[in-house]
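Extended Data, panel c. Modelled sequence:
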Amino acid sequence: MGFADDHLVPLLDAGLGNNAYLVDLGDGRALAVDAGRDLRTLREAAGRRGLRVAFAADTHLHADFLSGAVQLAHDERAVVLASAAGRRGFAHRGLADGDEVGLGGLTLRALATPGHTDEHLSFLLLDGERAVGVFTGGSLIVNSAARTDLLGAERAEELARAQYRSLQRLARLPEDTAVWPTHGAGSFCSAPPGSERTSTIGAQKEANPLLAAPDEDIFVRRLLDGLGSYPAYFDRLAERNRLGPAVLTYEPVLPALAAERVHALRSEGGYVVDVRPAARFAGGHVPGSVSIALRDQFATWLGWLLPDDAPLAFVADADQDPGEIVRQAYKIGYERIAGHLAGGMAAWRAAGLPVARTPYLTPDQAPDTAYVDVRQRSEYAAGHVPGALHLELGTLAGHVGDTPEGALVACGHGERAMTAASVLEHAGHPGVRVLNGRPRDYAAAHGLRLTEGEAP
């Protein structure tokens, strides 16, 4: 049994593709690293071990979730550890390169590793003089490094060069040092696909193509060429984290709203978000509502497609958890929640209000018509229907006029395509159809072969 087996608890947020960590310090206290605002799993893990979180360390100003450090300081008197260069607007212990914090028998040493952000720190965990592991946040991650364009495209190369130097510094740690990143597979902060979420310095020197780059220029080109799009809310959240998220002194709830109140919400600048599965939305929904199925990726698409300063009303099935809707919205800073449609679509119909429907077609039902692929660039390049028009879901609202009338909208399975159809409908472009299936299933049904490569 090693240190990680005995003392380290990784806490996965599958939807955002991130890990937080809970470290048992051996004396009833714990260190939390990069904890998100939804603290349920962390508190469950701490409770099982009888631990109080005494320290909450953030490696950087997160752009993809609200930090839970301020909440832990309020609830458990945790000392917040973070970069002094981050100029955070709340009580914390500001650290610079080389600063150390005693954790009882262990020591946490701050290592300046700019690149993903300017003020980024990695935290080296020491047992005496021995390096046990390093919390690398958005610096060195498994088989990659996190993106460097979150502070603007004009700074992406400059920060990529800083990222190169940071990775070279980390690579000089002992090879058996564990690597504990925050960003992992599924994160739009740029992690490649794969099941491994932690590693070692030695393993990364063998497997990470960025560490294998022969020089800085090639490293920069490889890193920047691999960057895709990212959710719109990333541009807002780092500053929210710098100022400090509001402390929650109560469990947020989702009030019940009458159908007439939900109907009026849109005229007041609000949005109706339908969290039911795609097939249920297709069979009948509030006209103009946006379909974002309640699943792991719910928060990502909510934050990508809708503003955070407009009231939101939700339509859900009776067996869906209203609390989960609220928790996912709050963890990315969406707090203007009006409520949910009481009685669901049955109550909407009973009120005599209009109902919209969207054709949801299996591959053999789908006509041979204009095919719009709304997947990410990398997914499209890996294999797409010949002649497909590629419009990423996150950019679709700006390309409504480019979408052919009567088009078949498709993604990997159907959920994102239904979201895309709802975005088009909301913008006044109805009449699209949605593929219930995969591109390869459509190709097989229509006698086609998938094509690789990016759109011209």
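The mean pLDDT is 95. This feature is highlighted in the accompanying rendering.
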